[in-house]
Amino acid sequence: MKKLTIAALAAMTVLAGCGTEKADKNGDAAKTELVKDGALTFSMTGLYPPLNFKKDGKLTGFDVEIGTEIAKRIGLEANPVTNPWETIIQGLKANKYDAIIGSMTATPERDKQVDFTDPYYLSGAQIFVAGDNGTIQSKEDLKGKKIGVIQASTWKDMAEDLSDDVKGYPTDVNALQDLELGRLDAVITDKIVGVSAKNEKGMDIKPVGELLNEDRVSIAVAEGDKELLDKINKALAEMVEDGTYEKISMKWFDTNIMEK
What we know:
Elements: H1 2-18, E1 39-44, E2 47-48, E3 52-55, E4 58-60, H2 62-73, E5 77-82, H3 88-93, E6 99-105, H4 108-111, E7 114-123, E8 125-130, E9 146-150, H5 154-162, E10 165-169, H6 172-180, E11 186-190, H7 191-200, E12 205-208, E13 215-222, H8 226-242, H9 244-253
Parallel strand pairs: 1-5, 1-6, 9-10, 9-11
Antiparallel strand pairs: 2-3, 3-4, 6-13, 7-13, 8-11, 8-12
């Protein structure tokens, strides 16, 4: 009987060991259904500089650095990959990667298919003016001003509510170039697009006023994967708290894009 009991206990110990999940550096149980063992595989298009793009054949950008820091904090290697935007959610649902860290806005429609973390940056419609413009400080100052926007966009509707002099352009860059040349009083475009044009292209423009609407850009994980969701949220909160997030943001945008 004594031998039988010892044998049973030994068997139970072996079984328990087989069912134990790997522990991360904080002692928390790591996700066992990872696409790549020991790594956080996260997806993006790789076509959206400076957020995510390829340089010398290697993925880089703000999204990549945020994902790499998150992976480190939950005890995993970073494994960034690319996927076409039109099928990026389907790829997550098909278990091609563990998360999407690719500047995706959390919307009610997308939330039906995936689970979103807390936002890792805020964007939305932003008013931009020339760098030396001191008269336009808010949307109330746009009455009667000439505003440039992408034609057939929601920003065009916003602009028409603020002024009766609105000009449509095929791209944001075209509108921002005319703004810099003094042909427009203001441009309404995505905050990150304008900030990138200012920093990356050296355009003499600046944002003014508050966002006209807000896009909460978040990380997507598979629906129901609360374990990974909670770990990412914890890592993000720690990054904001200890200043790591701001350091990464300042590197790429010269501003903290978590702030409105």
